[in-house]
Amino acid sequence: MENLALIDSFSEFKDDKLIDRVTLMAILEDVFRNALKKKFGDDDNFDIIINPDKGDLEIWRNRIVVADGEVEEPNQEISLSAARKIEPDFEVGEDVSEEVKLIDLGRRAILALRQNLISKIHEHDNTNIYKQFKDLIGDIYTAEVHHIRHKAVILLDDEGNEIILPKEKQIPSDFFRKGDNVRGVIENVELKGSKPGIIMSRTSPLFLEKLFEQEIPEVFDGLITVKNVVRIPGEKAKVAVDSYDDRIDPVGACVGMKGSRIHGIVRELGNENIDVINYTNNLQLYITRALSPAKVTSIKIDEENKRAEVILKPEEVSKAIGRGGHNIRLAGQLTGYEIDVFREGAEEDVELSEFSDEIDKWIIDELSKAGLDTAKSVLEQDVEDLVKRTDLEEETINEVIRILREEFEE
């Protein structure tokens, strides 16, 4: 009865963890054999009989009968007098099978056996979870916010699996409450000890690519291919798309009428600005498209050093660079080229760095972030616009403009 009670006590655990009964029995046998080795030194002469239907288990110890006083291996041999206590008609040389009860193993052994069984079931469960989520790496997954910590949000899926969304894998504008459903891509699965650590990401370019697959039927069906994705999470992204069917406009299909198709993706990513461009093998055209919305006048490409010199009209430079330099940085990542921007007629202009004796470096840096790195590029702007585009005070900007104008008046 002790064996049956032990197995039954784990039936509920088995149901909770979705371990099938046959697997549970295999784990039981392994655990019992380890207990027998510790108790008797060897388990070779033991039969463990498991009945999965009834959930019952029997342990039988097999020994050979030897004459009294000639027992050399107590685990393999039994004296004639001891054997006849089991069955009175045993003779020397015969095999004796004796049932082993749990109580025979001792109280401490039973406690250790129980703990080992729990550990083995957890290990089996964790191995299955690890394998399951290893196969899901790169896929979109949804889970519910369970706990919010300083460095991570802890999510639980429908099966109670814990998924970690680290702070650095969250979009800066993300804000979660307990019970919220969160979508992300499974980025990595690690076995920390015996417990799998499942890492979700919302900042990965792959998350944006998978959202395109999920939200745009032509991408899902393979009619449109996502060639490359680059992101500054929560700020801006560029996606290059292509189609092998000339009748399909890949950009139009992805964006939709008045942005209807891409709107859901933008909202999911915290209003991330997404530029969708047509991929092409024509490198000059590809770089031109990557710098959108700026209009490029001409391009000079150095393929050996992976650099491109781009000439633009002065009013297009700030568009090419973008807020905080985001546009030009993403264009470079998308094309794989370091992009240098030059203004038409720049030879008549003066770099702001030339004014470092009169203008503080931090002011020059602030103007450069807004795509203004020459004297004329600053002088062409309204003071009001410069205040909006930078973190500079109006008084500071007026002083900069005075210094720059003096240069050209001279």
From TrEMBL:
Q: What does this protein do?
A: Participates in both transcription termination and antitermination.
Q: Partners and quaternary state? A: Monomer. Binds directly to the core enzyme of the DNA-dependent RNA polymerase and to nascent RNA.
The text of the family note is:
Belongs to the NusA family.
Q: Name one Pfam family in it.
A: KH_NusA_2nd
**Keywords of the record:** Cytoplasm, RNA-binding, Transcription, Transcription antitermination, Transcription regulation, Transcription termination
State whether keyword Transcription applies.
Answer: yes
Superkingdom as given in the UniProt entry: Bacteria
Query: Which compartment or compartments is the protein found in?
Result: Cytoplasm
Q: What is this protein called?
A: Transcription termination/antitermination protein NusA
CC annotations in GO: cytosol
Matching InterPro entries, A to Z? DNA_repair_Rad51/TF_NusA_a-hlx, KH_dom, KH_dom-like_a/b, KH_NusA_2nd, KH_sf_prok-type, NA-bd_OB-fold, NusA_N_sf, TF_NusA
Residue span(s) of domain K Homology: 233-306, 307-384
Instruction: Indicate where this protein is primarily found.
Output: cytoplasm
Q: Which organism is it from?
A: Formosa agariphila (strain DSM 15362 / KCTC 12365 / LMG 23005 / KMM 3901 / M-2Alg 35-1)
- Which GO-annotated molecular functions does the record name? DNA-binding transcription factor activity; nucleotide binding; RNA binding
Q: Which SMART domains match?
A: KH (SM00322)
Taxonomy of the source species: Bacteria, Pseudomonadati, Bacteroidota, Flavobacteriia, Flavobacteriales
Q: Name one GO biological process term.
A: transcription antitermination
